[in-house]
Amino acid sequence: MPGQVTDDFSIAYYLLKEIVQDDGVITSELGKRSIINWSEDEEFCPKFAGPTTIMAITKLKNNEEFDPAKEFGFINYNNLGTNGASMKIFPVGLLNGRDFVKTIDDVITICAHTHFTNLAIAGACAIACAVGEAMYDDATIDSITEAGLYGAKKGNEVALERIGKVCAGPSIEKRIELAVMLGKEAKSFDELLININDYVGTGVWV
After folding, report:
1. What's the rounded Cα separation, in Å, for the pair 15 and 192?
2. Is 37:14 a contact under the CB 8 Å cutoff?
3. Is the dihedral of CA 112, 9, 63, 28 positive or negative?
4. How many other CB atoms sit within 10 Å of the CB of residue 35?
5. Can you say whether the dihedral through the CA atoms of 194, 186, 84, 48 is positive or negative?
6. pLDDT by 10s per residue, the chain, length 206
7. 117: three-class secondary structure by DSSP
């Protein structure tokens, strides 16, 4: 039986292929191309594309801007605080390491076509910065956590400055802090899982 990968990995794989093809130079066009190419993979896109991604793909294929607020008259972007940016973004952390400023810039460049809200980008920046830190031999659990917290905070700030699409919701930085606290206080793995589910939450929301 052939091996399998998750849909999360598949979209990151398509992103990494485009990064390698472009010699590591991150551009807006690269981000657009990677998501369009992934959308044509019948094994993954039709089955697993999330709500934000699926809305954006048709627009991107037609070279149209994806902005539901303009199309439907939304007064906010609260339905676009999903985790699609976070699930695909680890290659940026692998490439940039501890250069968190460039990491955050690259994350926004890649994700601006689909997941452009402050919370979606904050989540993606947290992942990318944590992955970048984890690539070093002297990295620790605490340093990886701190890198993720930095990415969440700074990613939120830069996203608001550069894009300005606000998604109402709890701070990614504070939710990471809460998750870490719950992890440290849990007396068993089962207790940890229950508390993360009950207090932090899981699912498609970033």
Report:
1. 32
2. yes
3. positive
4. 26
5. negative
6. 477 788 788 899 999 999 999 999 999 999 999 999 998 888 887 677 777 777 788 888 888 777 766 655 555 677 778 888 999 999 999 999 999 999 999 999 999 888 889 999 999 999 999 999 999 999 999 999 999 999 999 999 999 999 888 888 999 999 999 999 999 999 999 999 999 999 999 888 88
7. strand
Q: What's the pLDDT tens digit per position in 141-154? A: 999 999 999 999 99
Write down the pTM of the prediction.
Answer: 0.90
pLDDT at 42: 81
Gap between the Cα atoms of 42 and 44, Å rounded:
6
Q: Which residue has the tokens 């940026």?
A: 92
Q: What is the spatial distance between Cα 154 and Cα 8, in angstroms, rounded to a whole number?
A: 24
Buried b (16+ CB within 10 A) or exposed e, 107-137: bbbbbbbbbbbbbbbbbbbbbbbbbbbbeee
List all residues 6 or more positions away from 45 whose beta carbon is below 8 Å from its beta carbon: 38, 39, 57
> Do residues 124 and 91 make contact, with C-beta atoms less than 8 angstroms apart?
no
DSSP 8-class letter at 59: H
Query: Measured at the alpha carbon of residue 88, what is the angle toward residues 85 and 90, in degrees to the nearest 5?
Result: 110
- Where helices occur in 62-188 by DSSP H, the ranges are 68-72, 84-88, 90-96, 100-111, 118-134, 141-162, 172-185
**Which domains, ranges and CATH numbers included, belong to the chain?**
7-62+78-200 (1.10.4080.10)
